[in-house]
UniProtKB/TrEMBL annotation:
Cofactor(s) the protein requires to work: FAD
Catalysed transformations (reactions): a quinone + sn-glycerol 3-phosphate = dihydroxyacetone phosphate + a quinol
Listed name of the protein: Glycerol-3-phosphate dehydrogenase
Species, as recorded: Pseudomonas benzopyrenica
Keyword Oxidoreductase assigned: yes
The protein's Enzyme Commission number: 1.1.5.3
Name of the gene: glpD
Pfam families the UniProt entry points to: DAO, DAO_C
Length: 509
């Protein structure tokens, strides 16, 4: 669905470079305030950092140790905002913190959890409490006590896609597989050259937002031929997916001897996700992969806590990403600030706003801060609006459970597993996917794992899908169960079909 702008340059208010969470968040916020917005992403939406997170909407309990109280307060408040905006992809989760006396003392953990409970707004999520473990639990016998608190889980890649959809629904032009080749200031505007499936073309914009994530500094140096105001530290975080380690919907937050923490998080009903790591990364951010040392590290932390022991043979899948953190000259990768820094540079009345750092949880607040910085250049900019606006699929929706029941009632032949997957992936937009169809037989052939042709066509038409990985790892997580033959069939389908897009979907420039 990558669509480049027309040959005749169009002038936008804002051009956004980068289709990760910060780029699409800014695009959505700006479009909703009345600006015309163009966003380009050189790969797929959420291709890199934004799909390689621990998939949490959380305050960041460990950030309290580094005295990042503003960041934690802002992130804590955002949990319930995002729960209300996207109840289909965000869900509450309880986190169990086993206490190991030789690490952080109990009083310190209790004090931290007290702050965590009261630092930010909390109306729906229950508070923390102490726990005692018995011999029937999944933890090792020597771990006798612990604590429990609340945070939220999110499908990170879908959070990105939904913000892009919201921006498009409000009029933004979102193009994927299209990279920014150059940008320069000319007579009070930016002239931006992009290259995509339709070749090289130009647009003009009054303002430019550099939300290139790991490439934010290199974009300034190489594409803009300017000096970057800040350095970037690339911190690699890797995760492994293993068979389910324990029963229950709770996650575990495990303290390691090096004072880092590792999560064990329920994943897709039958797996456990274990991660993340923190290590400096020096290579190409597009080529980051888990190392043997990282695999051993996360398995070692899990084996120090759980009765069920893991080996490399248990690793079913891995994923890695780099967090582009603003360089604060910290010697410890875990201590580098996760806060964001916005840099505004203005010449000839044409602003450049560059985004350094940030975290998934606070993307919406980052976007509001970006709008505040750009306000002087757009005096008719509308008011903030995103706090109470549902994301696509969150409209007219109560709970995923209720939507699952409604789907089973209205669509004949639907299995509970598929109904649940649709409800927790598309929310109320599932009715757009279905159209007039009310039986599974009308959805076309099954490519694999209950993925019907109709769903693929929906993803092509509405969610910028062009390749198998877009479907299998970012729009869904069916890559874990697809066979090589099924993947080849999906690639073939995508190569030979591209349904016509509506004007609302394409927003042709």
């Amino acid at each position: 669905m990558a669509q480049a702008p027309t040959a005749t340059p169009r002038t936008y208010d804002l051009a956004v470079i980068g289709g990760g969470i910060n780029g699409v968040g800014i695009a959505a916020d700006a479009t909703g305030r009345g600006l015309s917005v163009f966003l380009c992403e050189r790969d797929d939406l959420a291709s890199h950092t934004s799909s390689a997170s621990s998939k949490l909407i959380h305050g960041g309990l460990r950030y309290l140790e580094h005295h990042e109280f503003r960041l934690v307060r802002e992130a804590l408040a955002e949990r319930e905002v995002l729960l209300a905006k996207a109840p289909h992809i965000v869900k509450p989760m309880r986190f169990v913190l086993p206490h190991r006396p030789h690490l952080r003392p109990a009083w310190m953990i209790r004090a931290g959890l007290f702050l965590y409970d009261h630092l930010g707004k909390r109306e729906k999520l229950p508070g923390s409490r102490g726990l005692k473990f018995d011999a029937q639990g999944p933890l090792k016998a020597e771990i006798k006590r612990g604590f429990e608190y609340s945070d939220c889980w999110v499908d990170d890649a879908r959070l990105v896609v939904l913000n892009a959809m919201q921006a498009r629904d409000k009029g933004a032009d979102i193009v994927t597989r299209t990279r920014c080749v150059s940008a320069r200031r000319v007579e009070g505007h930016w002239e931006v050259e992009v290259e995509g499936p339709q070749g090289r073309q130009q647009i003009r914009a009054k303002g430019l937002v550099n939300a290139a994530g790991p490439w934010v500094a290199s974009f300034i140096r190489q594409d803009l031929q300017q000096k970057s105001p800040y350095g970037i530290r690339l911190i690699q975080g890797s995760h492994v997916i293993v068979p389910k380690l324990y029963e229950g919907d709770q996650a575990y937050i495990m303290q390691n001897e090096d004072r880092r923490i590792v999560f064990a998080i329920p994943y897709l009903g039958q797996y456990t996700m274990v991660g993340t790591t923190d290590r400096e990364y020096q290579g190409d951010p597009a080529k980051v992969t888990i190392t043997d040392q990282e695999i051993d590290y996360v398995l070692g932390v899990a084996n120090a806590h759980f009765r069920k022991q893991l080996s490399r043979d248990d690793v079913l899948h891995t994923f890695s990403g780099v967090r582009p953190l603003c360089d604060d000259e910290s010697d410890n990768p875990s201590a580098i600030t996760r806060d964001y820094t916005l840099s505004l540079a203005e010449e000839q009345g044409a602003p450049l706003l560059s985004v350094f750092g940030g975290k998934l949880t606070t993307y919406r607040k980052l976007a509001e801060s970006a709008m505040a910085q750009l306000q002087p250049f757009f005096p008719r900019l509308g008011n903030s609006w995103t706090a109470s606006a549902p994301l696509p699929g969150g409209e007219n929706m109560t709970t995923p459970q209720a939507l699952t029941r409604e789907l089973l009632d209205k669509v004949s032949g639907l299995t509970p597993a598929l109904a649940q997957r649709w409800a927790t992936t598309y929310g109320s937009r599932v009715w757009t996917l279905l159209g007039d169809s009310r039986s599974v037989e009308e959805l076309g052939a099954v490519i694999g794992a209950d993925l019907h042709v109709r769903e693929v066509e929906y993803l092509q038409r509405h969610e910028w899908v062009t390749r198998a990985d877009d479907v299998l790892w970012r729009r869904t997580k069916l890559g874990l169960v697809f066979t090589n033959a099924e993947r080849a069939a999906l690639e073939n389908l995508l190569a030979h079909s591209e349904p016509a897009r509506s004007a609302k979907d394409s927003n042709a420039a």
